[in-house]
Automatic annotation (TrEMBL):
GO terms for molecular function: single-stranded DNA binding. GO terms for cellular component: mitochondrial nucleoid. It comes from Cutaneotrichosporon oleaginosum. InterPro entries: NA-bd_OB-fold, Primosome_PriB/ssb, ssDNA-bd. GO terms for biological process: mitochondrial DNA replication. This is Nucleic acid-binding protein. The keyword Secreted does not apply.
Amino acid sequence: MLGLARPTLNTAKATLGQRGYAKATLIGRLGAKPEVRQAGNGKSYVTYNLAVPKPPKRNEEGEVVRDEQGYTVRDTNWFTIFNFRPTAAQYMANLEPGTQLMVEASLETRTTPTEAGNVKDLLLREISHQVVSRKKN
């Protein structure tokens, strides 16, 4: 990983002042290679999908449900994460699908008008990430 600048608590306090702040920490695996895209203003940004497993499914007796091979049955939450830092493409280029990441992200809601009415989306803007483990070949 290239020199990744991480915000410190003092920086965050000075930036946020008296406003509220929503932050999430996610630990999951990359679903595909991160993609570099162009914003309307011409600046590039990176998006990637992170698969985060839910707790194991349980039956009516409270026992963990297992499949035919004996593996625990779980559902997965998928999150799309945006990284707007200018150096994002450089240090995200070598991440492969299956890489496990711990991601800190700020949470923002966005309202998008559609024909059926307004739709609220949750935008996850990466603050920092750390590689937990690489995909095993």
